[in-house]
Design a protein that fits this description.
mainly alpha, two-stranded parallel sheet, two-stranded parallel ribbon, 20 helices, 55% helix, globular
Length: 358
């Protein structure tokens, strides 16, 4: 008798982030033996030190992979398959749609100098930036003037779209010796490599290369590998196979990406015989209820760090700017998502745990 395929998903008490019911429906449709792992706020807080210590580089991601990997290993499995890579391969992110549209908008206005276009974008975002709080919104929409200014360079535009902070506030966050030292967040060698690999490609095809090299390669795969190996679990990622990439990369943009965001080719091949309604939901990331947990169970520990100049300064950050950012988050300032403060906290903690100082 063939043993059943087992599937796993994390469940949360906060229903806004709980995708467990959808995972259960999908598991029933494909006939797997399904495991639902409840991750409560208290369990997360109690396990956080071990989880963060499992990641060998500073990152604000990866903890979801740590907890699901530990659950799979505790169930007795040593190897697991992950669907990581599908969005990067088949255009599943909003980036594939938004960045080419912005480039086209700027191109059509090429009769006007770039600085005029950036000023027009600044006027569009002016209501968003009218906040009484000293830290402006750190969102993609607030970055529109800076994105317009970089629209001729797709790689710089891509990096700005993913940046956690506006350029001006990023410089404020860095200590004076480091302000202005980071340009688009890329080493020269990586920039040259990506420029060579994307030369001659269409915008969506070039973005796919960037997503695979940067978001997938420098973050998802790195974090998932560290998080899974911390539980002695081998994670395999069939959608990242280089032979598959080469085959898919030879297809036309229309066959591979259209309509953008739906990954239709992957659906046609992988979802045969299943009810399409199972997959007709808005796209969401594999996100935990960080915002509420930071404001409750994690607040005291983070508050001690984020307000302590002696903890912040040795890492190359500006203590005053970090405290302003933290206060803006706690005050509910507009455009102040959890990822902005969590990234700073995770970085500072990693530096101290590993003795890495500026």
């Amino acid at each position: 008798m063939t043993p059943p395929v087992h599937t796993f998903t994390l469940a949360f008490e906060d229903q806004q982030f709980n995708e467990a019911p959808f995972a259960k429906q999908t598991a029933a449709a494909i006939g797997t033996q399904h495991h639902e792992v409840m991750l409560s706020e208290q369990r997360f807080v109690d396990s956080l030190d071990d989880a963060l210590d499992s990641l060998d580089q500073p990152t604000f991601d990866g903890l979801n992979a740590y907890f699901i990997s530990r659950a799979i290993r505790e169930a007795g499995f040593t190897v697991a398959l992950s669907g990581t890579g599908g969005d990067e391969l088949f255009g599943g992110y909003p980036t594939y749609r938004d960045l080419p549209i912005l480039q086209q908008w700027c191109h059509r206005g090429r009769a006007f100098p770039r600085k005029w276009q950036a000023k027009a974008a600044a006027l569009l975002t002016w209501p968003l930036r009218q906040s009484s709080h000293p830290v402006p919104p750190q969102t993609r929409w607030a970055k529109l003037p800076d994105m317009v200014d970089r629209s001729e360079d797709l790689l710089a535009l891509y990096q700005m779209a993913y940046a956690l902070f506006l350029p001006g506030f990023q410089d404020e966050l860095l200590a004076p010796d480091f302000a202005g030292a980071v340009v688009d967040g890329l080493p020269d060698a990586m920039r040259r490599r990506l420029m060579a690999e994307t030369a001659g490609r269409t915008a969506v095809s070039a973005i796919s290369v960037m997503e695979q090299r940067l978001f997938l390669g420098e973050r998802l795969l790195r974090d998932n590998d560290a998080a899974s190996m911390a539980s002695s679990l081998e994670q395999r990622v069939p959608l990242v196979d280089h032979v598959l990439f080469e085959s898919v990369d030879a297809l036309s943009d229309r066959a591979r990406y259209q309509p953008l965001g739906r990954k239709n080719m992957l659906r046609r091949i992988g979802l045969r015989g299943l009810d399409p309604a199972l997959f007709e939901r808005p796209k969401t990331g594999f996100v935990m209820p960080f915002d509420r947990w930071i404001r409750r169970g994690l607040k005291d520990a983070m508050d001690r760090t984020m307000r302590d100049p002696q903890a912040i300064a040795p890492t190359g950050l500006n203590p005053a700017a970090v405290e302003r950012l933290w206060r803006a988050f706690l005050d509910g300032a507009p455009g102040m998502y959890w990822s902005r403060v969590w990234s700073i906290y995770a970085f500072v903690r990693w530096c101290h745990r590993n003795g890495v100082y500026a």
